[in-house]
Amino acid sequence: MHLPTQSLLILALALFGVAHPGEDEAPISEAKKLEKRAYHSNVIESYSGCAKKLAESGVLERADLRRRSTVERHRQDLVARRQQQVLGPRPGVSETPDSEHSLQLPEQWRKSHLVTDPNIGLETPENELFADNGTCVLNPEGTIGPFYVTGEFVRSNITDGQTGVPMIIDAQFIDVETCEPVEGVWWDVWSCNATGVYSGVLGFENGNQDDKSIVNATFLRGIQQTDSEGVAQFQTIFPGHYNHRATHMHVVAHVGNVTQLPNNTITGGTVAHIGQLFWDQDLVYEVEETYPYNTNTMPITPNAHDRLFFDEIDGTTSDPTFNFVKLGDNIEDGIFAWVSMAVNVSASFNPSYSWRLTDHGDIPESGGDSPI
């Protein structure tokens, strides 16, 4: 379902569930699919009336200005860095996967989310970048998988020195029932690094099994609280890939009576959503040509071959992918990606986890070396 620009909004799914590398996840049952379709229908009907209110209240205009400002700031930083250093040669490029994979998706999911001409450069005006806004309808609880670590730190920069394509992600949460931005959502995110490894967990074919230091790592994990505009941002890198899963990022939305502790973690509240977001396949292939992504010998799984991706878009008009713009002339210069998400804050789920972050690093719980 697509509403006109300015009165918006591209309604989309935030997919959920994850398999660990090599895991053959069971398909979603027909009963579950029917349940989800009914949910989508109800939420879309409720949310479709929000477009006018969001426009009249200035939410859409302020979001547009915020995104422009963010891109301009990071482009200025990029120019400053270029003035201080001479860029080296581009790393070796691996063989690009067959782009025909993406053509297996229905047409509406093959559209580009690059919100400008592909030839965008540093001089492209910001007012040409944000002619469209996307909204993701958050679905009922899905399988969270074995890589969720509870107790992660509240912080906006989750890079922790990881090498990869720099990326700023921006999310705005909208209450599907009130059509207002949701202040105080604690947005919890995690993803693998450029070579397909998650921090904080052992086992599950997660990188080098002999590298026990991974348990004490926290890279590409973090939590941010949304502001009065329902917005939170992270500085991260574009995720890599691993066996049998398309490139994705995990998201959890904590709401309610959440408290930030002195050690910069959170406690309390409820979980209104567990999900995943994806990227255009062409963007994934472009990133995967660069170092260190191109050192990963595992095959890339396209969105069209990810069973969870297909299960979630089955019977819907939703779209689970980030909109994005390149910050410079080369993909290595970085990406700004954004999404707006309609969430039912009264929903409550109980996410399972097999690892917990402590003062002494991550510790396994409930047999943390086997999938949930």
From TrEMBL:
GO molecular function list: ferric iron binding; oxidoreductase activity, acting on single donors with incorporation of molecular oxygen, incorporation of two atoms of oxygen
InterPro entries in alphabetical order: Intradiol_dOase_C (IPR000627), Intradiol_dOase_core (IPR015889)
Region Disordered, residue ranges: 83-104
Coiled coil: none
UniProt domain Intradiol ring-cleavage dioxygenases: residue ranges: 159-260
Cleaved signal peptide residues: 1-19
Entry keywords, A to Z: Signal
Pfam family, one: Dioxygenase_C
SUPFAM superfamilies cross-referenced by the UniProt entry: Aromatic compound dioxygenase
Domain of life: Eukaryota
Name by which UniProt lists this protein: Intradiol ring-cleavage dioxygenases domain-containing protein
Organism: Penicillium malachiteum
